[in-house]
Write a structure and sequence with these properties.
The complex is a heterodimer of chains A (195) and B (709).
Chain A: H1 19-23, H2 41-44, H3 48-70, H4 75-94, H5 114-118, E1 154-155, E2 162-163, H6 166-173, H7 177-186
Antiparallel strand pairs in A: 1-2
Chain B: E1 14-18, E2 22-27, E3 34-37, E4 40-45, E5 50-55, H1 63-67, E6 73-74, E7 77-78, H2 81-94, E8 106-110, H3 116-129, E9 134-139, H4 140-148, E10 157-162, E11 167-173, E12 176-177, E13 183-185, H5 189-203, H6 213-223, H7 230-237, H8 240-245, E14 248-251, H9 262-309, H10 315-324, H11 330-350, H12 376-422, H13 424-447, H14 453-468, H15 473-477, H16 480-489, H17 508-513, H18 520-539, H19 549-554, H20 558-563, H21 572-575, E15 577-580, H22 583-589, H23 604-613, H24 617-624, E16 627-630, H25 639-648, E17 659-661, H26 668-677, H27 681-685, E18 687-688, H28 689-695
Parallel strand pairs in B: 1-8, 8-9, 10-16, 16-17
Antiparallel strand pairs in B: 1-2, 2-3, 4-5, 6-7, 9-18, 10-11, 11-12, 11-13, 14-15
Helix pairs in contact in B: 4-26, 5-6, 9-11, 12-13, 13-18, 23-25
The chains are: A mainly alpha (195), B alpha+beta (709).
Chain lengths: 195, 709
Amino acid sequence: MPPKGWRKGQPEADSGVTLPEQLSFMHIPKPFKNPAYTKNATRRTQTLKTLLSREKERDKAARAERSKLKGGVDAGDVKMEIENVADNTMDAEDRMDVDAAGEKRPVVLLQLDEDELAEGLDPDDVPSYFSIEAPPSFLPPKRYCDITGLEGPYRDPKTGLRYHDLGVYNYIQNLNPATIQAHLSTRSSGAVVIK
Amino acid sequence: MEPEEYNTPESVPIIIDNGCTTYRFGFANASTPFSIANIYSRYRERKHNLQIALFGDNVEVESGAKTQSKTAWEGDILINFDAMENALDYAFCKLGLDTDSVAHPVVVSERLCTPAYSRSVLNEMLFEGYNVPKATFAIDSLMSFYHNTPDQPQRDGIVLSFNSASTSVIPVLNGKGVLANAKRMPWGASQASEYLLKLVQMKYPYFHTRVTPQQSAWMLRTFCQLSPNYLETLRELSTPVGMKLHDRIVQFPYVAPEEKTQEELARQMERKKEAGRRLQEMAIAKRKEKMETLASELAEALALKERLKAGEIAGDELDAELERLNYDDVGHLNNALKNMQQAMKRARKKEGEMDDDDEEEPTYPLIDIPDDQLSENSLREKRKQKLMKANSDARKIQKEQRIEDKRIKAEEAAREQDERDKDLSAWSNKMRSQHDMQVRKRQKAALLDRKSAASQSRMKNVASLASDMPGPRKRRKGNEGEHIVMRRCVPTLKYSDDTFGADDDDWQIYRKINTAAPDESEEEDMTRLAVIEKQLLEYDPTFTLEQTYASVSSARSKLLEAFRPAYPEDDVRGHARIHLNVERWRTVETWFSPGIAGLDSAGLGEIVQFVLSRFKPEQRLRMAKNVFLTGAPAQFPGLPVRVHGAIQEVLETGAEIRTRVANDATLDAWNGMARFSLTPEFDQHAITRSFYDEHGPERIIKWWGGNWV
């Protein structure tokens, strides 16, 4: 569907055409677009926060479902049953209304082929956006000078800044609170209160 | 924008590598894709009142467009589908499609474990908005890996994918990505660039221009690197020489002040001198004029006085004459006469017409006459004369004292001079040792820490003062009940009868508490130091200004000077410079220890080790032989070596580790997708229209190069 007003956008031959007009792709016909396709505005506009929280819910539900299915039934049956559940929920999905279908999610059926099973991979371990997040570091944090970035074995008790040597210490003593705050905030996410 | 000629058969897939910074698209049989920044802007242009849509770097041509620009990605997640639609529009327009629908199969890259929402909307858009016949989603880094190992279908390895907003580690076994064991850290080139920008801004808080994110991204790409051993590199940098050795200067544009030629400078000087001389002349003329009027007035007044004395004038005539000369009466005339004479004297003195010593000694005729021989008037006069005499005597004594002082000083200087003349080095040594002693004394004073006896006693003082004080003031303001209770508890309320301050010695307590205030001995020390330094500076050619206590104590350390060289006030060029030294390593080190940038996540080395640890030892060995780095930031110098080191830590010694970067770290994902799309395998894994209609936009087919769900 050509966007509204693209006809108006045809540059006139006689008048001077500006550079943005030359570079614009607004006026180029787009016959390949389906004119019947309307974008569902509510579906289109999601904030990052809602997107992530929905994804989390979905992930949790799928995991719960999988562990429920796993209990008691032998492998062949599980497969069939999962297939069934998946098909049932797919009907809802076909309506393409993700928001309404939020209650019942399709259970993700993870089929590992022989190769993967031979490598000893766990078929229950389904990756999701959250499960692949890196763990926090287990190494003791190294200490670096907040001003120069060199090794910082000392810490100024007044400001909390780490420093490399006496020269840097003297420099720190003349900093104003805003600068100290800025230095501290680069290595810690939250705001820091200077004592 | 001019679309390309469209003559590609419909069976050739369109490949889109939808990166969050760079957008690459093209037909699978093209040798290189179109590569453009993934940013778009739509706005109304004022001149012809047209809607304009710009994509990629074109956004930069118009400032209005830049402020309106949008990108499909928010960090690591595809979320803005209006922008995505425009990106697809742009790609299909550019490729010149003029058919009713996009009749080519489409391969689009997606992020590792992308949220279902992102995929489903994109999927829906492709099938319903553009009517594509077939589509496949591929993980970009796995496709890059595939492209770089074409002849090993059963390839094993570890893929390190460096993206703009994240970095992932994906283990690969038998050619398939084992996504369940993959890990992603939320740190990428954009975060690193932001971090560098912050560092630069803190290093140069008063920089003359705003450093843009683009500039910091450029600095990151151009100057930053990894060292195999970060601590060692830091130690190398921790000397001024080492710091300077690794320094890189980024010169920003600046406007040079106009250089004045010698001639111009000379002319300017001449003009200044001329103006000065004119002013001087004017002042002289004015003074002369003033003196002339004064002289004439004085002459007239004197003449009148003479006539008055001689009795030549009296009565109305006198009055008229007084009025003519602006005097009230004879007394006024006398006073004015005196004043004028004095003023005349002063003026003459100023002009150097009269000598200092010319001042005649006033006489005190009445002083020696006994009181009883004097009339009342004369007595008053005598008292006056006595006072004047005392004053002048005091002045005389002072003068003598001054002369005496001068003489002593001259003698002392002569003695010093004598000493210097005899043996300069001995004198210099003596002075220097005195100087050093004083400096050390001051430094010692500065070093007094809180454990010292003086500080301890100070703390005791403060504590006792605090305990002496009655309850805190706010308690008194509290409710009535509390007030009464307090009174009972502290029977002697000291507020009313506090006599602190009545005795001047009370104030000494503040001197004891506030040691920061300079006390007299310190002041004395400082003056003594100043005298020594002045003499040393004057006579000892080896003693320079840098050695004085003031400059020693306030000097920036050499290391800091190397870290951020200071330029003189008027050096415009120097002030438009950014020196990068430690930052060159510090910025990229964040991938391996994100903690230094405030991110609570394991570093890349730890993650690789973590991922490997979830496999059996023989699997680990297989994977270690093929460690593959891809994505634009993978091009940092030193990165493969560093990753190599991290992997070595978890493998037994002697294990074979091979690390390599993609041939083209930025384009190989696209190349891999293009190569894959031309194999028969593509048809097996692609989602067809009928599959889409049956299963909806969330369902995809699991295959080795795509996400699992």
